[in-house]
Amino acid sequence: MVPNPPFDLEGMSKVEAIKAHSNQLRGELSTELKEDTKLFTEDTVQVLKFHGVYQQDDRDLRKEARKLGLDKHYQMMIRTRIPGGIVSADAYLAHDRVAGEWGNGTLRVTTRQDFQLHGVLKGDLKSSIRAINETLLTTLGGCGDQERNIMCCPAPVSDRFRGEVLRALRDLVHGLTPTTQAYNEIWLDGELAASNQPEPPVDELYGERYLPRKFKTAVALEGDNCVDVYANDLALIARRDDEGGLAGFDVLVGGGLGRTANKPDTWPAVALPLGFVVADRVVDVARAVVGVQRDYGDRTNRRHARLKYTVRDHGIDWFREQVETRTGFRLEPTRPLRRDPVLDHLGWHDQGDGSFYYGLYVENGRIQDSDGCRLRSALTKIVEELRPQVRLTAQQNVILANLEESQQPRLRAILAAHGVTPSEQVHSVIRNSMACPAWPTCGLAVAESERAMPTLIRQLADLVDEIGLADEPISWRMTGCPNGCARPYLGDVGFVGTTLGKYDVYLGGDPEGTRLNSLYARNVPIEDIPQLLRGPLSLYALERGPGVTFGDWVDGVGVDELSQRVQPVEASL
Length: 573
Ligand code: SRM
Ligand code: SF4
Known about the structure:
By secondary structure, the chain is of the alpha+beta class. Helix content is 34%, strand content 18%. Helix 11 packs across helix 12 and helix 16 (453-467) packs parallel to helix 17. The N and C termini lie far apart (65 Å).
């Protein structure tokens, strides 16, 4: 491994100094945790992220608080890092308990297969994190400038290939997790943290300043890109060998979707092919990729600090050379990339080992009890009674795994008794939709998302029925700002919030998630979106060839030509 180059902090972004002086992610966290205050200081908020916690406030209550001269309603969001989305029954129940006892009574399945618990007060943070850790999961690496949760197809299919992929996933998690003891000291053994610990050894991979920015890795399986692998800094596509085992991985680098409004030098991008590596050496390659980003990523400007900019600024050939110098071996050329479908794994499936799994649709990832649909209670009962393993999908849904065939009627009965619609009966438009949290917890939201999508998506389902497209697998994704958390730039249709009540509308992603969509209309009031899309969807219904998806059709026509052509069609309808 090439050592860290010497650095000084001159001209670096503020977060660089905080990381450098954090003593391997300790900072003042331990001291501030003990203080009887409602919030952490600004510097500690940055350190806290590495431990999987965001300081937020309830934005619904801001105005009222301001009027009354009160502070904001500060609260924490805890994100548990769950590689491949695999959660034991006990870990599920622990999250449910924390949500009920200290959080806002809901669990949220994220687009990266994690759980988020919102609304935890500072004073309850330590108890919440300890409860999560007792079930062998960690929040370390949920957020921060380091490797985030490593995604992997969660379908619990029992075969040699998947078994070997899961082993590689475990090795990747081990090889890319920071080595600091700060997390254990602060959250699991407070007394140790308070006693003056000697300086820990520097993390060999991350150095003193960790990475310039967040870093995301996903593992897709050939034939199933359910993790949206091309959106990642490091994208690994597992390939089969002739005997049905794992041959190795195609390695792609420099995907990422974040952009900033009115800053054209920030943009979403899909990952570019780097090479192929056999399974035994994938951790070496992953650590080398992280190492190049650590040493060459932009630490002066956080808007230009993701790997996608490093790769494009220096060129993919330079990047490959850097990786090969660090690993000491050459990458093979990538295998021809296929367009692998994005499967949602919903409904009943045979695992291939005598057991079954059920993929349960969760609207926008929010597990909660609401009028008529008591999803949280239903899941608690199912997990307590049937003890399935739980797996979280990248489309914000839940898989209940390792069920006996004889347990199927009971699972159906519990869902029915709690008013939960079985996945098979969810309209295809709703089933293929995702929305990020946005209001009231996300401090970066400029528009509603999770709370706006349910009404809009039902209007779109009616429209699609009317036009006769209900059987087409069109994906619909909404975010409350341009950061791209529900991956709107990879959907057939993307809605990106621009201000309260308005969205940029993007069209033309492919169903396999390999192509970015294009901006079709700016700043559209939400109530006008169904009418805006009536024209393109109607034209598609008239003109589509067999097997041509909506996104591919739009891409073929082009958004500019499409907007000119829909007006006459609208007039004739
Ligand atoms: Fe995200 C920031 C929620 C997946 C790009 N994201 C945030 C924060 C933490 C807001 C903040 O920084 O204060 C949001 C917390 C909201 C809340 O109240 O819960 C947030 N992001 C989410 C989640 C929960 C959305 C969801 O619907 O599930 C996802 C959590 C994933 C996880 O478990 O780790 C989530 N975020 C993503 C993705 C999708 C993905 O990774 O596949 C992206 C686009 C891919 C990418 O990273 O490029 C994404 N989030 C961002 C960005 C833009 C990053 C950039 O390079 O510009 C930000 C803002 C930032 O980092 O400055 C952000
Ligand atoms: Fe917040 Fe924007 Fe991400 Fe939505 S896309 S969760 S509004 S940062």
